[in-house]
Amino acid sequence: MAARGCCPSCGSAALVEDAHYAQQQLVCAACGCVLAEGLLTTTYTEEEHLREVTYSQSTGQKEQLSRCLQRAFRTGSKA
């Protein structure tokens, strides 16, 4: 992603490539306008290598209902 041109919002030429998040973006350093974004999703071939991970494996904690939901199930009311 080449940092060329100027910002359509403020006209500044201070455009920077920002790869801070999961996708690369072209951002105006003056006003924060996002001019271009990379792909956030995976391709079909990349998905072949993915596998399911349970909540407890990803967090190291046992998955359980909140106390509010547990109370609602016992009493039959809505949470």
UniProtKB/TrEMBL annotation:
<keyword id="KW-0862">Zinc</keyword>
<keyword id="KW-0010">Activator</keyword>
<keyword id="KW-0677">Repeat</keyword>
<dbReference type="InterPro" id="IPR013137">
    <property type="entry name" value="Znf_TFIIB"/>
</dbReference>
<dbReference type="Pfam" id="PF08271">
    <property type="entry name" value="Zn_Ribbon_TF"/>
</dbReference>
<keyword id="KW-0479">Metal-binding</keyword>
<protein>
    <recommendedName>
        <fullName>Transcription factor IIIB 50 kDa subunit</fullName>
    </recommendedName>
</protein>
<dbReference type="GO" id="GO:0005634">
    <property type="term" value="C:nucleus"/>
</dbReference>
<keyword id="KW-0863">Zinc-finger</keyword>
<keyword id="KW-0805">Transcription regulation</keyword>
<comment type="function">
    <text>General activator of RNA polymerase III transcription. Factor exclusively required for RNA polymerase III transcription of genes with promoter elements upstream of the initiation sites. Contributes to the regulation of gene expression; functions as activator in the absence of oxidative stress. Down-regulates expression of target genes in response to oxidative stress. Overexpression protects cells against apoptosis in response to oxidative stress.</text>
</comment>
<keyword id="KW-0539">Nucleus</keyword>
<dbReference type="GO" id="GO:0008270">
    <property type="term" value="F:zinc ion binding"/>
</dbReference>
<keyword id="KW-0804">Transcription</keyword>
<comment type="similarity">
    <text>Belongs to the TFIIB family.</text>
</comment>
<feature type="domain" description="TFIIB-type">
    <location>
        <begin position="2"/>
        <end position="36"/>
    </location>
</feature>
